[in-house]
Design brief:
With 116 residues, the chain is mainly alpha-helical. It has a domain of 77 residues. It has 2 helices and no strands. The mean pLDDT is 80.
Length: 116
């Protein structure tokens, strides 16, 4: 007596001919899910908020970030220049007042002499 074969698998399982999808035999829920998947994929690749639009916005963001960094560096340089000018002018004015007795037009100079 020969033992019965439990599984009879064809030798060429790589052929596409063996895989046939009959759309009439698929349940409606599977078809609905496939349609939904196709819709979502279409929105992802071609929609207003799709991949190309996101990539364009990413490029614009990188450009704007570079411009912001340049502006930030320029602002820091200007703040340092203003600080140097203010301190420099204040130092010059203080020295002129002390050594040369400089007085502004709207000021009155009062000197108090200490008794000896």
């Amino acid at each position: 007596m020969t033992s019965p074969r439990i599984l009879d698998v064809p030798r060429s399982t790589t052929s596409v001919d063996h895989v046939q999808v009959n759309l009439r035999r698929l349940p409606w829920s599977t078809l609905a899910l496939l349609a939904l998947l196709l819709f979502v994929q279409a929105q992802l690749w071609v929609g207003n908020s799709g991949k190309p639009y996101t990539m364009k916005l990413q490029l614009e963001l990188e450009k704007q970030s570079a411009l912001n960094e340049q502006a930030r560096a320029r602002n820091e340089q200007l703040v340092a220049e203003v600080r140097d000018l203010r301190e420099g002018l204040e130092m010059v004015e203080e020295r002129a007042r002390w050594e040369l007795g400089m007085v502004r037009p709207d000021e009155i100079l009062v000197q108090v002499a200490r008794p000896r």
